[in-house]
Amino acid sequence: MKTQSTLTVLLLLLLFSCSPEENTSDKIIQGNNVKTLYDFDNYGISHNLAMDHIATMPNFNTASLEDIFYFADTYTDAYLDNSCQCNDWQTHETQMDMIEQLQENMNSASSILVNMNVITPQEVPLTDMLFTIFDNAVSLQNNSYKSIQEFTAEIEALENFVFNNYTIIYDPVAKTGNYAATILGACSIAKNSYSYWVTATLNSAHSWNYRLTQLNPATRNGNTISPIQKGIFGDIWRGIKRAGADVGGFIVGGDCGGILDGRDLGCAIKHAKKKSSGVRR
Question: I need a labelling partner for 29 at 20 to 30 A (CA). Which of 102, 116, 141, 264 fits?
Fold first, then answer.
């Protein structure tokens, strides 16, 4: 991940403050109750609860990625009901190949997603803004990373930008919406996931700590687990990359549902859960 200043993110927000696709006169007038009304924050909370549940599976620390993939379906809540049945193990593995490309090239994430027909060129600006925040979260040269508070503040600045400059179309019952709504859901995933994985890496008592710091499930079939030796910064970097996979999974999954026009955020969060628990390296 390359090192860039927070100023870069702010400049991007200014540069793309007018979207030709969605910045229209009928945009939602924002108010203090918008987050409650459109409840995007709960997507990230639901994601983290799903991660807690997955860690309760029998023999979790030595379970294969395929076993975890199927056990993940045993968690449901108001946002994650598993009604989307558009993903099997082989499809998941194929999508993980793309997610791993995103993890290694956060600054090229939008190009990868366009080439895979996941997003349109018109959706690139918001996608770039989100993944730029991830790209800036870690400095490999300095072995440093953004604190949870710093990262959250940058994501919340992007959320406010979207609220103030884009038309937000979202059905809280059907859990469907346009791409601006998908980005707000992805921002919720980003904040909660970043906090979750950084905390899990630093806290040896966390239910995911052993898998994050001691195991390397980096195989094509997801069934081989071997010890890895690395420092704490490498562990944290891996945790942050997992958060990036969560967001990538959410964006990929939003294009998977049965709706013909827009995004299925219900499918998106299911994909985020699967991709999060299925990171291979």
Answer: 264
Within 10 Å of residue 147's Cβ, how many Cβ atoms? 12
Contact between residue 152 and residue 188 where contact means Cβ atoms under 8 Å apart:
no
Indicate the pLDDT class of residue 17, thresholds 50, 70 and 90.
very low
The per-residue pLDDT for range 96-115, each reduced to its tens digit, is: 887 777 777 777 888 988 98
Single-letter amino acid code for the residue at 165: N
Q: Which two tokens stand for residue 183?
A: 């980005």
The span from the CA of 128 to the CA of 107, in Å, is: 7
**Euclidean distance between CA atoms 135 and 184, whole angstroms:** 18
**Residues 151, 186: contact at Cβ < 8 Å?**
no
Tell me which residue of 233, 215, 232, 229 sits closest to 281, measured CA to CA.
Answer: 215
Cα three-residue angle 75-80-84, rounded to 5 degrees: 105
Distance CA 252, CA 254 (A): 6
Count Cβ neighbours within 10 Å for each residue of 55-66 and write b for 16 or more, e otherwise.
bebeebeebbbe
Residues 6+ apart with CB under 8 A from 234: none
pLDDT confidence bin for 232, thresholds 50/70/90: confident
pLDDT tens, position by position, 165-198: 998 888 888 888 899 999 999 999 999 999 999 9
As given in the structure block, the two tokens for residue 276 are: 């999060």
C-alpha 60/C-alpha 63 separation (Å) is 5
Contacts for 57 with CB less than 8 Å, ≥ 6 apart: 63, 67, 68, 71
